[in-house]
Specification:
The complex is a heterodimer of chains A (about 280) and B (about 600). Chain A is built from 9 helices and 18 strands. Chain A is an alpha+beta fold. Chain A has 2 domains: about 180 residues, Spore Coat Polysaccharide Biosynthesis Protein SpsA, Chain A (Alpha-Beta Complex); about 90 residues, Ubiquitin-like (UB roll). In chain A, helix 2 packs antiparallel against helix 4. In chain B, strand 10 and strand 11 form a beta hairpin. Chain B folds into 3 domains: about 200 residues, 4-Layer Sandwich (Aldehyde Ferredoxin Oxidoreductase,  A, domain 1); about 200 residues, Orthogonal Bundle (Aldehyde Ferredoxin Oxidoreductase Protein, subunit A, domain 2); about 170 residues, Aldehyde Ferredoxin Oxidoreductase Protein, subunit A, domain 3, CATH 1.10.599. The radius of gyration of chain B is 22 Å and the shape is globular. The longest helix of chain B has 21 residues. Chain B is built from 26 helices and 17 strands. Classes of the chains: A alpha+beta (about 280), B alpha+beta (about 600). The structure holds iron/sulfur cluster. The site of iron/sulfur cluster has 12 residues of chain B, from loops.
Chain lengths: ~280, ~600
């Protein structure tokens, strides 16, 4: 494609700059692992280089984890333009699942493990070192060795129905398609909140139109709803210190009359109707 | 004994006599009170195959261990008999001061058999029963009867009584007549008609017994917690709007039946929504005695009168009959209350008749002008049903029996299960509820299980059927059986942390007997199995656990559930999964091992 994939321009900026900007909304410590001879634009990251070239993903994960300050890291390649923060949050949360601790959380998408969109504890570094020494360069060896939580497609679809997180670019055509997708995603979407019962009486309206960012989640919509209808805060909605709103117990949300959702990370689509109703329907 | 009294009063209307009988404590631990004790006594006191309108059909009132303890929402009683509408068990609940007075009589149950020669009312005290003439009360509404009796006893004997009574529909044996007290109704299954068959107009109670609990401190602590939670966000819907809040939500979710279950949604749902009623015509908030939720709402009619309205009444006398005007629904509700007609069965039977009229299947209906949305024609039918006059004499039989008179085509859209008209939950878009309605022992019922909760919570895909539903419905029925036997109002159900553990703790504190969560779960299963055993004895066949043909042949044609259907195979699959979850055989019959396991 004529230049390193991390440097392909989107909106006139190299892709890696977008990735770092997005990840910095969640992470304060970002490590970039570059090839020995690679030059990158100046970024607010810790930059490390492969000590030995051509060791594949295991090498990159190994050098990256060695450089992190914390105990675990989300690892991604640099050619994925559509990372989804709520999904990454979910992966991180799965390091402990049903009271069990895991060293790796890795999604399975289209029947394939996604080692370069996964969460690793720093404690796996010695295992990776052994693997590299033995020239076992496939990440799956690690998953057979340490407690690994595999995240199913059904779980992924709750956050990322089309698997955009895993979309990478290998050809010029891939790049062009990604650019087109990038443009549609920068257009805001319109959704409508339909209020029922106590929520309707409290807000004194039955419908609230919302304009949201293209990647808005249920949590984002509720936060905007709290701004549009402050009367709902304290009775139907609660807001945390950062101003993020969520539904109080006793209320639930249904999207388009079809799916009941409570997970704040649920992605919304243009034209969605969010029904806010009592969680005690019936009776 | 704590929590219970350990005895019942048996009253014979034919011989005008009564006796006290002990109730074994083993029976009380096994089935608690309320519907559980009612089902157990019905099984023993009803002669097998008894005709619902015969003198031998017992009319059983039961109290329950939590009644009178001061716990919020527990002022309730059950009335149990063999239903003239279904031929199976009828177990209805009602509430308020009558329930508290029943407990103060010092009995856990009244078992009334026989039939009086003349219109009679019973005055029951802790000394026994008095048989009084009710000739002067004939034709009065339940409310008027209640007022007259209370006034008479107050002026003549300087005493207060609490009264449950029937109206004209009960006197005339309308198969879906109610029993009412203080504006509350034991609505479903036709208990009011069994009163009528016994020429019993009312029961008046005056008791002096105090309710003792084993551990007052523990009960008070639980009572405080529940009282606090009962005014939290979990019950906001009931406290702020009442059950009428369901209408707009159900409509939006494709679950509001309209035009005799021909379709959803309803074009005028907004005007009939609970939110609109609250905004436009709210009059008063009421609640049962000892309730901190107070879910009842009264709305003002155009003529200024206040009328109590619940979702089921609103659905059945509104969208189900195509009625769009809020005031027409209030007027119809008032007439039903006045005559003592169950609003769901009334709306269901009239909606069926309206479709007969539409299709020209019942020529006599032509002169009534009956058509969907014609409020005046529908209102005019209500007195006819209550008086059993004109076409009303046939409608008074309920949609199942009425349809057999009109013909096979009309039977295809008589929307009942076991003879009881369906409540306002569209089974095609609520598949768990579809199963709950099909297998419920008392017919199409939304109260003896909360199967719809799985559909409305996203726990399952409500538009699809699968073999996981049997276990959900069985669990929901068992949960409801325990609620209805303790008795706690179902609107308090979300205020428990762990329902079985919490109520086991509560029951231990009230009775001094040691209950565990596992015991109470088994109590729920035992009660539902007992009801099934009663129904089997009274002639239940596998085809009785089924849904009306319309629901199994016509997909929904609009709304969010457009195109959604329910096939006979899907229903069969769910029913089999229910029998399997219950440990019954494939035909739905209770096995001997199961009876032994449950001590039945
Ligand atoms: S919540 Fe409603 S039905 Fe239940 S006890 Fe209170 S007033 Fe009665």
């Amino acid at each position: 494609m004529g230049r390193p994939k991390a440097l392909l321009p989107f909106d006139g900026k190299p892709l890696i700059a977008h990735l770092v900007q997005r990840l910095s909304q969640r992470f304060s410590d970002i490590v970039v692992v570059a090839a020995q001879d690679q030059t990158l634009p100046s970024l607010p990251v810790t930059l490390v280089h492969d000590a030995v070239a051509y060791q594949g993903p295991v090498g990159g994960i190994y050098y990256g984890l060695r450089a992190i300050r914390g105990t675990a890291a989300f690892v991604t390649s640099c050619d994925v333009p559509f990372l989804q923060l709520p999904f990454i949050d979910y992966l991180v949360s799965q390091l402990n699942h049903h009271g069990r601790d895991y060293d790796v959380v890795v999604p399975v998408w289209q029947d394939r493990l996604q080692p370069l969109h996964a969460v690793y504890r720093r404690s796996v570094v010695p295992h990776l070192q052994e693997q590299l020494a033995a020239q076992r360069l496939r990440p799956v060896y690690l998953y057979d060795t340490v407690p690994t939580r595999k995240v199913s497609p059904a779980e992924i679809e709750r956050f990322d129905p089309e698997g955009m997180s895993f979309l990478n670019m290998n050809t010029q055509a891939d790049y062009q398609a990604a650019l087109a997708q990038w443009r549609t995603l920068s257009v805001p979407i319109s959704c409508t909140v339909e209020l029922f019962g106590v929520a309707r009486l409290t807000a004194r309206t039955s419908r609230v139109p919302l304009t949201l960012s293209a990647e808005a989640t249920l949590g984002d919509a509720l936060t905007v709803l709290g701004v549009e209808c402050p009367a709902l805060l304290g009775s139907v909605l609660s807001a945390d210190e950062a101003g993020h709103a969520s539904l109080q117990s006793g209320y639930t949300c249904n999207i388009n009359g079809q799916d009941f959702v409570r997970d704040a990370h649920t992605r919304l689509r243009a034209g969605d109707s969010l029904l806010i109703l009592s969680s005690d329907a019936g009776g | 004994m704590y929590g219970f009294h350990g005895r019942l009063l048996r009253i014979d209307l034919t011989t005008q006599s009564y006796t006290w009988q002990d109730i074994e404590s083993s029976r009380l631990t096994a089935v608690l009170g309320g519907v559980g004790l009612g089902a157990s006594l019905l099984y023993d006191h009803a002669p097998p195959g008894v005709e619902p309108f015969s003198a031998d059909n017992p009319l059983i009132f039961t109290s329950a261990p939590l009644v009178g303890t001061g716990l919020t929402t527990t002022a309730k009683y059950a009335v149990v008999t063999k239903s003239p509408l279904t031929g199976f068990i009828a177990d209805s609940l009602s509430s308020s001061f009558f329930a508290l007075e029943l407990k103060r009589l010092g009995v856990d149950a009244l078992v009334i058999t026989g039939a009086a020669e003349q219109p009679t009312y019973l005055l029951i005290t802790d000394d026994g029963a008095e048989f009084r003439t009710a000739s002067h009360l004939t034709g009065l509404s339940a409310q008027e009867t209640e007022e007259r009796i209370r006034h008479a006893v107050r002026t003549e004997e300087e005493a207060e009584v609490r009264v449950a009574a029937i109206g004209r529909a009960g006197e005339n044996l309308v198969r879906f007549a109610t029993l009412s007290n203080e504006g509350r109704h034991a609505g479903r299954g036709g208990v009011g008609a069994v009163f009528g068959a016994k020429r019993l107009k009312a029961v008046a109670l005056r008791g002096r017994c105090r309710v003792a609990v084993a551990d007052t401190g523990a009960v008070e602590k639980i009572a405080t917690t529940l009282r606090e939670r009962s005014v939290g966000p979990q019950t906001a819907k009931y406290r702020e709007i009442g059950t009428v809040a369901n209408l707009a939500v159900f409509d939006r979710l494709g679950s509001l039946p309209t035009y005799n279950f021909q379709n959803t949604p309803f074009a005028q749902a907004e005007a009939l929504s609970g939110e609109s009623f609250i905004t436009n015509s709210f009059s008063q908030t009421h609640g049962c005695a000892a309730c901190t939720i107070r879910c009842e709402r009264l709305f003002r009619s155009l003529n200024g009168e206040a009328q109590r309205l619940e979702y089921e009444t609103l659905f059945a006398l509104g969208p189900l009959c195509g009625i769009e005007e809020p005031d027409a629904v209030l007027r119809a509700a008032r007439l039903c209350d006045r005559y003592g007609l169950d609003t769901i069965s009334t709306g269901g039977t009239i909606a069926w008749a309206t479709e007969c009229a539409d299709k020209g299947l019942w020529p006599e209906l032509r002169e009534t002008g009956l058509s969907f949305g014609n409020a005046e024609a529908i209102l005019a039918l209500l007195p006819d049903i209550a008086h059993r006059q004109g076409v009303g004499a046939i409608l008074a039989e309920g949609s199942r029996l009425a349809a057999t008179r009109i013909g096979a085509e009309a039977e295809g859209f008589a929307m009942h299960v076991k003879g009881m008209e369906l409540p306002g939950y569209e089974p095609r878009s609520l598949k768990t509820m579809a199963l709950g309605l099909a297998v419920s022992p008392r017919g199409a019922c939304h109260n003896r299980s909360g199967a719809y909760e799985a559909d409305f919570s996203g726990q399952v895909d409500r538009l699809q059927a699968d073999a996981g539903r049997g276990a959900l419905v069985a669990a929901s029925e068992d949960f409801s059986a325990v609620l209805d036997s303790l008795i706690v109002c179902k609107f308090l159900r979300k205020c428990f942390d762990d329902f079985y553990a919490d109520t086991a703790h509560l029951m231990s504190a009230v009775t001094g007997w040691n209950y565990t969560a596992t015991d109470l779960k088994q109590v729920g299963e035992r009660i539902n199995t007992l009801k099934k055993l009663f129904n089997m004895r009274e002639g239940w066949r596998p085809e009785d656990d089924w849904l009306p043909p319309r629901l199994l042949t016509e997909p929904l044609s609009s709304g969010v559930a457009q195109g959604v259907s329910l096939t006979p195979d899907e229903l069969r699959l769910m029913i089999q999964s229910y029998y399997a979850a219950r440990g019954w055989n494939e035909e739905g019959l209770v096995r001997e091992e199961k009876k032994r396991e449950l001590g039945l």
